[in-house]
Amino acid sequence: MTVKSLELGFFRNYPHLKAEFDPRVNLVYGDNAQGKTNLLEAVAYQTADVLGAMEQDSGLRLKALKVDGGASANDFLMQFQADMINVPVRRPQCVETTAMGAAYLAGLAVGYWKNKEDLMTHQKPDRIFEPQMTQEERSAKRRGWNKAVKYAYGWARDEEETNTP
């Protein structure tokens, strides 16, 4: 079995989470179907953690999550993300929004579109993923995730202590 790792580097942007999580912690998964599912779930859990921290810091509640990029093409990931954050996840028809944004700006500059409102008529969702998981199931899964990260953090700390001269 091939082993790969995914760094939890996003914690660098949320220093108040470092009390429990170390950004150098790696989650390991196997090169098989369950391992790939675990990896996709880890992406959704990490995103949910960051969004939760943002909601806590801002005092605002997320109403929907707009997604783009290559990972957003994965229906399983988008549904699991909606379930973990308990809000709809909206995927546009064109997930390459950086290129689309550049094209929109160029079109505005040369007068192809009249204004930003004219552009909005061209932004159509491909799919909206509605949360389907019960609160009980969501809470159980999040507790499991938090427990796994806590143990992974402990492993990293143990390794650091044994490698210290």
Structure characterization notes:
There is one protein chain. With 165 residues, this protein is of the alpha+beta class. It has one domain (3-89, 130-158). The protein is 50% helix and 13% strand. The protein is built from 5 helices and 5 strands; from the N terminus they run E-E-H-E-H-E-H-H-E-H. The protein has helices spanning 33-58, 75-85, 97-109, 116-120, 135-162; strands spanning 3-7, 26-30, 65-66, 89-92, 125-129. A 3-stranded mixed beta sheet has the order 3-4-5. Strands 1-2 form a two-stranded antiparallel sheet. Helix 2 (75-85) links the parallel strand 3 and strand 4. 15% of the residues are buried. Residues 1-31 have low confidence and may be disordered.
Radius of gyration: 19 Å
Give me the oligomer status. Answer: single chain
When the domains are counted, the total is 1
- What is the terminal-to-terminal distance? 33 Å
What does the average pLDDT come to? 78
**Spatial sequence of strands, sheet with the most strands:** 3-4-5
Label this structure with key terms.
alpha+beta, two-stranded antiparallel ribbon, 5 helices, 3-stranded mixed sheet, 5 strands, 13% strand, 165 residues, disordered N terminus
Structure summarized in a few sentences:
With 165 residues, the chain is of the alpha+beta class. The protein has one domain (3-89, 130-158).
